[in-house]
Design a protein that fits this description.
This protein is 31% helix and 15% strand. The chain is of the alpha/beta class. Strands 1-2-3-4-5-7-9-11-13-14-16 form an eleven-stranded mixed beta sheet. A two-stranded parallel sheet has the order 6-8.
Length: 396
């Protein structure tokens, strides 16, 4: 009975919360409960023809959808959301927001959609502190500024970030460097990307067992240097998954790309899940071949990545036991097993022997006692006295 009363009380409180939400909801928007226990609100203001953020947005809003509006069209527009400390999911897609508006987004936001706006550049320092999913697709972004070294990003999970369908021509050195966060998914597809500098992806990995997916398909890349991913790959010891998508790029599979078969072989030897996708457009003898079909033998004469061969050899030797050690273990293991079996067998045999010996001694004593008893009983009373003394002597 008490449980039924409790359920009725909870339901009544929830219906009261729903009524309050509907009464305090901004005009042209819909408000729905976002969470049963936390009394949080899901605010839906998409396609509401808004040019400003409503003033009476509930303080307990956890999810807000302002997509397909006119936000940012007014030159004096300000993104006033600082008072929403519970806001976790924010959709601002298909508006007219500019790069300067990113700073006004609350740090509590974890999922942010800024696609189809008017952003021209991005500074990673401006991202919310707890961001873990960021969509920047279909903007006019032509440059990415890395962290300054004092990045406030504190996301405990890996960040997924989309830059697809922008206008980024060059990925500069340390684009993702100096950030305290770990990036697990980076989509740079369908840009004007033609150059990736050394150490461009340095710092994207902060934990040894993280995964990394990089999509640079549908660009203008001819050569992709290994030095762009060097720190990221070698920092991912024991990583769950690594994927590099270079499809639909005019790749020239010359000596500058000889690192690809080396790394694919490295992944296999280390027992790691690594995939590098793409198709060679040149030179003529390699045109049309998939990157995973390239072999190390084809690049024997190349010296560009001789240092990488030595590095891979050193790393695989640390992971893989040398041949002579393998042979030693193979030869030593059977001998060790045989020794253990022999020791166990001997100990069991000794125990069995001791038990048998004790049994024989007891049996002999019993037989001797019976014989004495039979002999002395024939002698009468004197025999009984002698029999008892004989038994006592035998027991001693």
């Amino acid at each position: 009975m008490s449980r039924i009363i409790l359920l009725i009380a909870k339901f009544s409180a929830f219906m009261l919360f729903v009524a309050q939400v509907e009464s305090n909801c901004p005009s042209k928007c819909d408000c729905n409960p976002y969470s049963w226990d936390m009394n949080q609100i899901d605010l839906d203001c998409h396609r509401a023809q808004l040019d400003t953020i409503p003033r009476n947005v509930p303080l307990t809003t956890a999810k807000a959808d302002f997509s397909l509006n006119k936000l940012g069209l007014d030159p004096g527009f300000q993104l006033k959301l600082d008072h929403l400390h519970d806001l976790r999911n924010l959709d601002l897609s298909a508006n007219f927001l500019e790069s300067t508006h990113i700073k006004d987004i609350p740090d509590s936001v974890e999922i942010l959609d800024l696609s189809a706006n008017s952003l021209s550049e991005l500074s990673l320092d401006d991202l919310p502190t707890n961001i873990r999913e960021l969509n920047l697709a279909k903007n006019g972004i032509d440059s990415i500024n890395g962290c300054s070294g004092e990045s406030s990003i504190q996301s405990s999970s890996q960040i997924a970030i989309r830059f697809d369908y922008n206008a980024i021509p060059i990925l500069t050195r340390d684009t993702f460097g100096n950030c305290s966060a770990s990036f697990g998914y980076i989509d740079l597809s369908s840009n004007n990307l033609h150059t990736v500098e050394h150490n461009a992806f340095r710092g994207v990995i902060q934990k040894a067992n993280d995964s990394l997916v990089i999509d640079m398909s549908y660009n203008k890349l001819e050569i992709v240097p290994f030095e762009a991913f060097q720190d990221a790959i070698f920092d991912m010891r024991g990583f769950e998954y690594f994927s590099l998508d270079l499809r639909k790029n005019p790749l020239l599979c010359s000596c500058n790309m000889s690192w690809i078969p080396m790394m694919l072989d490295y992944f296999q030897k280390m027992g790691l899940k690594g995939v590098i996708m793409g198709t060679c457009y040149g030179p003529e003898e390699s045109a049309g071949r998939h990157l995973e079909e390239l072999t190390k033998a084809e690049f024997k004469s190349c010296t560009e990545y001789s240092w990488l061969k030595a590095e891979i050899k050193a790393r695989t030797e640390q992971r893989i036991m040398p041949f002579w050690q393998v042979c030693l273990v193979v030869l030593a293991c059977p001998g060790l097993v045989a020794t253990v079996v022999l020791i166990v067998g001997v100990r069991m045999h000794v125990k069995d022997y001791r038990r048998y010996r004790d049994y024989v001694v007891r049996k002999k004593r019993q037989i001797a006692t019976q014989r004495r008893r039979h002999h002395f009983r024939a002698s009468g009373a004197v025999g009984d006295v002698l029999l008892n003394s004989s038994i006592k002597n035998s027991q001693k």
